[in-house]
Design a protein that fits this description.
This protein is mainly α. Helices cover about 65% and strands about 5% of the residues.
């Protein structure tokens, strides 16, 4: 008689979370390209789109699917240290969703992307282009925020490199594939792990509209 497998495939990441992840990657790359090439009109549009995604992710972290909610995956120092000790043994647990150390990276990346996009609203290039909110601050403040805008991008690249490296270590050394589930939405779960509760994508669309409306209002009305 054939032995049954003790693992099962479950949906762990919803479509909105996956789209957010990969759209953010593409937009950051696009922002880098347009900024480097001086295509500032599209650089600014990309920044607005990034800021919209960040606001959406914050809302989705409050009202979205179980694995997307901050209350579900943000843990305290005790849980982070316990996971780090297990990681050093080479046999860390495999939670459905973000692990405690991965959570720190996710929060750091969200913070950096948010600061990057926000400071861009006040930045200037001293030639032709000013951010839509530069009129709200002095030239000196705009120049300081422009420096922060450029510096944070370098930090963002460094954190992104660490994030990618960590995912490769998990995949090839620890035999935990964290990349494929962010593409397919599915991962393997042990018998004791219940499939997470996922929200209707229409709710995500509504929250995205709220985020886009907020960014549009800030850019055009302030």
């Amino acid at each position: 008689m054939e032995k049954r497998s003790n693992v099962q495939s479950v949906q762990v990441w919803d479509i909105p979370t996956r789209l957010f992840h990969w759209l953010l990657v593409l937009l950051i790359a696009f922002s880098w390209y347009t900024g480097t090439e001086g295509i500032m009109e599209w650089h600014m549009r990309s920044g607005y789109a990034i800021l919209t995604l960040v606001i959406f992710r914050l809302l989705w972290g409050l009202f979205g699917s179980q694995t997307a909610r901050f209350a579900q995956f943000v843990k305290g120092p005790k849980a982070v240290l316990a996971y780090a000790r297990a990681l050093l043994t080479g046999h860390p647990p495999h939670p459905l969703g973000h692990n405690p150390l991965g959570t720190l990276m996710i929060l750091a990346l969200l913070l950096l992307v948010g600061v990057q996009a926000s400071t861009g609203l006040f930045a200037n290039d001293d030639i032709f282009t000013d951010g839509p909110l530069t009129h709200l601050v002095s030239k000196e403040t705009s120049d300081e925020l422009t420096v922060i805008h450029k510096t944070v991008f370098d930090l963002l690249l460094a954190f992104a490199a660490v994030h990618i490296t960590a995912n490769l270590i998990y995949r090839f050394l620890l035999k935990q594939d964290l990349i494929t589930p962010m593409i397919t939405g599915r991962t393997t779960a042990s018998p004791g792990q219940a499939a997470p509760r996922l929200r209707n994508p229409l709710l995500a669309l509504a929250l995205l509209c709220v985020a886009a409306g907020a960014v549009y209002w800030v850019v055009t009305r302030l």
